Amino acid sequence: MATISAPHRHLLGIASLATEEIEALLETADGFVDLNRRSDKKLALLRGLTQINLFFESSTRTRTSFELAGKRLGADVVNMSVGASAIKKGETLIDTAMTLNAMHPDVLVVRHHDSGAVALLARHVRCAVINAGDGTHEHPTQALLDALTIRRRRGRIAGLTVAICGDIAHSRVARSNILLLTRLGARVRLVAPPTLLPPGMGPQYGVELFHDMRAGLEGADIVMMLRLQSERMQGSFVPSLREYFRFFGLTWEKLASARPDALIMHPGPMNRGVEIDGVVADDIDRSAILDQVEMGVAVRMACLDHLTRHLREAA
Fold it and tell me: How far apart are CA 161 and CA 53, in angstroms?
């Protein structure tokens, strides 16, 4: 497995990672994929270390992935139920940080509904912090697992055309993927109605914009669909779900514009019949959606390994 220096105490976003760090994390994660397919999946790399998963937003997929990652590396993993915690009783984020410091964890995995909240927490704790998604800001481990999925299925990222389609405006997944994929040499297209694109997004970010899905998918190697995040929307962004699916839902007819072997991706959870047709999502040859889930555990193992390496070296 690759070895990398650890100049960063935390993993808060793709923007803070150098290209060589991204590549090394992907190499390390690639090795963990093979470990996870064995009958004996346990290592002792994090034995004696404590990982707390602190999720202010629910996410079965991401939290379970981080829990499995920590346990397979030998850490003591604790899932904090924020819904029943003192935070619901008026405790501030800083108070929470002070409380967690008193418990002496080694890694905090944090998901929060506000952009920047994870970075704020990281400034007030004495352990490593991994951003498991903050508001509409970033979701770095999702971008890393998407990159690993593409690399294992296509052998490379540089030179590929990736179309990211759907609710770009509210998607931290899109932001992290734009940063990572353009850094690694992919050609990135954003395909969405104007109401679901962030203001000012364009060529200065190294991306191409399309409001017509068939044009956006023309010749694409990877089609990455995004969930319509109605819970983050203030007001009406689409006329109706039926109309949205008609123009921006992935169907076989629209996918025909992409390359014949184009991979279909989705970070989950999927809204079938809204952003993707179920029969397209379930195609065993074209869909990489379940591959993404598998790569998620390996990538999160690599991130935990990376951020705790200095602790193990000092022990």
Answer: 35
CA dihedral 201, 202, 208, 209 (to 10 degrees): 60
Alpha carbons 273 and 250: distance in angstroms, whole number: 9
Distance CA 254, CA 273 (A): 14
pLDDT digits (tens, 9 = 90+) for 62-97: 999 999 999 999 999 999 877 655 555 557 888 888
| Strands 161-165, 107-112: pairing kind | unpaired
What's the longest Cα–Cα distance across the chain? 59
User: CA 314, CA 126: separation in Å to the nearest integer?
Assistant: 16
The H or E element containing residue 312 is helix 289-314
Strand partners, 161: 187
Model pTM? 0.93
101 vs 11, 47, 72, 181, CA distance in Å? 18, 20, 24, 35
What is the rounded distance in angstroms from the CA atom of residue 250 to the CA atom of residue 228? 13
pLDDT at 53 over 70: yes
What DSSP line would sit under 11-66, residue for residue? B--GGGS-HHHHHHHHHHHHHHHHHHTSS-----TTTT-EEEEEESS--HHHHHHH
244 Cβ contact partners less than 8 Å away, ≥ 6 residues apart: 193, 228, 238, 274, 275
